Amino acid sequence: MVEFQxxxxxxxxxxxxDPGQPIELGDLSESFAALARIYERHYRTSSDxxxxxxxxxxxxxxxxxxxxxxxxxxxxVTMMDGGIIVADFTNRLWRGIxxxxxxxxxxxxxxxxxxxDAKDIKEFxxxxxxxxxxxxxxxxxxxxxxxxxxxxxxxYTFDENELNRAAINIDRALELPPPSAQEPESGKTHREVxxxxxxxxxxxxxxxxxxxxxxxxxxxxxxxxxxYFRKGxxxxxxxxxxxxxxxxxxxxxxxxxxxVLNGEVKGYTVLEIHDxxxxxx
Length: 281
What we know:
The structure is a single chain. By secondary structure, this protein is of the alpha+beta class. The chain folds into 2 domains: 2-176, no CATH class; 181-278. Helix content is 25%, strand content 37%. The protein is built from 5 helices and 12 strands. Strands 1, 2, 3, 4, 5, 6 and 7 form a 7-stranded antiparallel β-sheet that branches. A 5-stranded mixed beta barrel has the order 8-9-10-12-11. Strand 4 (63-73) and strand 5 form a beta hairpin.
């Protein structure tokens, strides 16, 4: 076991990769890199100062890895209160695999990840694919401040059949045309389009009803339309407006779902924020 210097408290993501046989080193390194890309894509888009993922413990046998979001401060890596990030990241990994691995008629209706996430989910699971008896475990664990004891908050496991089925379904999904070409006119989802906010306040984002937030997505409409935000742990609107930069001077790369009435787009619901940068006037 290799254990690095860190406070024995706080939240961790624990990944257990059990292939039941030796793992090719290249596959393992690519698996870890894919995990890092998913994290970077969703949790470090706003600032370079945002916490990075660090391995805080490695155990032998199966590959058991503890991961925590740590922040660099004046050259030192320090623990932070990462409970919300760990909870959301752990759940995101579970939802991403489950969306492709379950029986569509029996599994809960889960949102299909973006193509980038789908590719990296398959890469993350690659060391286990096609291996008899392979298992993948993803845990959200917490070390208690009082006594340093570790408790499991939530745990998800996938067997070889689920992992292989997910890989096959991801390959099929990646071969399909873009979502906008297959969905009906009403309620289209548009991936990675540019959103320019024309009006915004600092009140919490709304999911429906009257809103003071309006924006333009040139790929869809030149009109400034109401902007809503999917409710969730990420607080999407806060990522856009609660920073030192003026959100009206920024370009946001987002996934949105359109509201359509009588064939005309009437509003947008932001599903995901991929990137942001100053507008090019």
